Amino acid sequence: xxxxxxxxxxxxxxxxxxxxxxxxxxxxxxxxxxxxxxxxxxxxxxxxxxxxxxxxxxxxxxxxxxxxxxxxxxxxxxxxxxxxxxxxxxxxxxxxxxxxxxxxxxxxxxxxxxxxxxxxxxxxxxxxxxxxxxxxxxxxxxxxxxxxxxxxxxxxxxxxxxxxxxxxxxxxxxxxxxxxxxxxxxxxxxxxxxxxxxxxxxxxxxxxxxxxxxxxxxxxxxxxxxxxxxxxxxxxx
Length: 237
Description:
The protein is α/β, with parallel strands linked by helices. Helix content is 44%, strand content 10%. The chain is built from ten helices and five strands, in the order H-H-H-E-H-H-E-H-E-H-H-E-H-E-H.
């Protein structure tokens, strides 16, 4: 455990409740207000072909970190990964399926929706909320295993994003939690990012006030970390 990572999780220990509150399921949309009817499209407009993005999909499948909690549109780390992929000549499209507040159990429930996108690669980013809620490590491992196995059987490559927990959760629980990612990656022979927030956690200028979610600048660093493990499984051109 690096000094920066230790400082990060000491700060995070005081903000765990904030994560569960601010990173909870997004509020239901407000009822739509009545607006004036739009003018009918002209025949020329109707004749315009619909552009379909046929590039292979990379699905960012996770919780508030993937969803980009607290950031503007285009600032989440999956958004930045898309920009980096384009710049480096990779013809893939990022599909962001991060939902704030999700646990691994929620991920299992949403798994069919992810598989329905026929992803070439899935960045699997779950577990933080399990740990902060003190859920059984066995449940986290079982759910991550099911998601990884089902995604691979569907033809997707999986890149697993590892996490850790604040020190006040106790050494035994933390050790068991961290080992989940190591064991899943080993069993399913999938790339593992040791710590998704490496180089960001513990840096107040790169983290939002809650000490849990990265700022836009922090998200750019996370994206570069992700690229180190993502690009080796991609095809160029």
